[in-house]
Amino acid sequence: MKFQHEYRDAAAAKKLLRAIGEVVTKPWTIMEVCGGQTHTIVRYGIDELLPQKVELVHGPGCPVCVTPLELIDKAIEIASRDDVIFCSFGDMLRVPGSRSDLLNIKARGGDVRIIYSPLDCLKIAEKNPDRTVVFFAVGFETTSPANAMAVWQARKRRIDNFAVLVSHVLVPPAMETILSSPTNRVQGFLGAGHVCSVMGYEEYEPLADRYQIPIVVTGFEPVDLLEGIYRCVRMLEQGKIGVDNQYSRAVQRQGSRAAQGLIDEVFEVTDRKWRGIGTIPRSGYRLRAEYERFDAEQRFAVSHMQVLESSKCISGLVLQGIRKPHDCPAFGKQCAPEHPLGATMVSSEGACAAYYNYGRFLQNHSAAATADVPMDDVPLEPKNVPIPSD
Which of 39, 56, 190, 285 could lock 168 by a disulfide, CB 3.0 to 4.6 Å apart? Predict the structure, then answer.
């Protein structure tokens, strides 16, 4: 980002914190719906700098985290085959299945490759005509256009030794599932900016009206998030409902029509199972009939696989904003990055990974979380920490 420093400016952050403190009079619970936002919040201690009346809870905004256990097992089954080159983004390799993970398959000799674009898979397929190249197509609406383009190109170029294992999920149905739950306590949302850069925010407007809540589309840097929180709290205090767009430098109301058209060409909406949550109607994508020959589940006959999740992992409750990672008895003990029980501990956008990486498993986690980044003294730029992304 060319002007990244201005969205980490300590003076601007403190000004927004004061503004939030001045406007809030009642307790409010706000959920961010993006794992990248969660990491920024925890990394900079934003949740602990807010007035006590404002509580942030973490939603199902990590596509790796909500990929169901049986789909990980399907990926492992396919990747174990000698006639397959299995390609994935790196954040999927350590996500635990019921008995193993993709990194272990790679260590045992499976041809598992980390790629940086799904289009790279087409080049690999053309160079290896005697093997099938399978891409693990995981993500929210953000990654759907690129994955759709890979399938569209494969059909156009007649690359028939290419297939995708699809695990695309959609944000608005997940938000509605949370809002309609009898255990819901979310009163406002911070919308995921990168998702909305593709899809826009028109589809959020009926949701805001139906449940009488504010939704603020928000970016990913500290100042973005603090401004989004301020706007959301102000709307709550004023009794306003609807969608506000803090991330106007990247998001338009209608989104990208070209990207949406490509998604609609290749994918259709279907029911999807979410890890730790269950099946949410019309909450994901699957390949349309014209593209079914690129469906890895059908090609390798693994669609029947069903497995049970760990009873020790409470990631489903974390993803619904009901519990926090440090509420889990296994957190930082039986469950750690070296031996995770669930995807939220190893995903680069997982809430449990954020809490673990930034010291929230310590007894005095409040002090530990803010000690690295004293906002009074330094710009919001901790060293040697990767920038989270949607």
Answer: 285
Query: How many structural domains does the chain have?
Result: 3
**pLDDT of res. 380:** 42
pLDDT at 200: 98
Residues in the chain with pLDDT values less than 50: 1, 363-390
Give residue 319's pLDDT: 87
SS3 for the chain, per residue?
A: CCCHHHHCCHHHHHHHHHHHHHHCCCCEEEEECCHHHHHHHHHCCHHHHCCCCEEEEECCCCHHHHCCHHHHHHHHHHHCCCCEEEEECHHHCCCCCCCCCHHHHHHCCCCEEECCCHHHHHHHHHHCCCCEEEEEEEECHHHHHHHHHHHHHHHHCCCCCEEEEEEEECHHHHHHHHHHCCCCCCCEEEEEHHHHHHHCCHHHHHHHHHHCCEEEEECCCHHHHHHHHHHHHHHHHHCCCEEEECCCCCCCCCCCHHHHHHHHHHEEEEEEEECCCEEEEEEEEEECHHHHHHEHHHHCCCCCCCCCCCCCCCHHHHHCCCCCHHHCCCECCCEECCECCCHHHCCCCCHHHHHHHCCCCCCCHHHHHHHCCCCCCCCCCCCCCCCCCC
Residues 71 and 165 in one domain: yes
**Per-residue pLDDT, 326:** 87
> What pLDDT sits at residue 364?
41
Q: Examine residue 304 and state whether it is found in any structural domain, yes or no.
A: no
Is 192 a member of any domain? yes
**pLDDT attached to residue 375:** 38
Residue 360 is predicted with a pLDDT of 76
Shared domain check, 36 and 149: no
Rounded to whole angstroms, how far apart are CA atoms 188 and 209? 12
Query: By the 8 A CB rule, do 99 and 90 touch?
Result: no
Query: Residue 378 domain-assigned?
Result: no
Say if residue 83 is in the same domain as residue 136: yes
CATH code at 128? 3.40.50.11740
pLDDT at residue 384 in the model = 33
Give the residue numbers spanning the domain of 215: 4-62+172-240
**pLDDT reported for residue 303:** 81
pTM recorded for the entire structure: 0.88
Residue 247, domain member (yes or no): no
Residues 19 and 100 in one domain: no
Residues 72 and 164 in one domain: yes
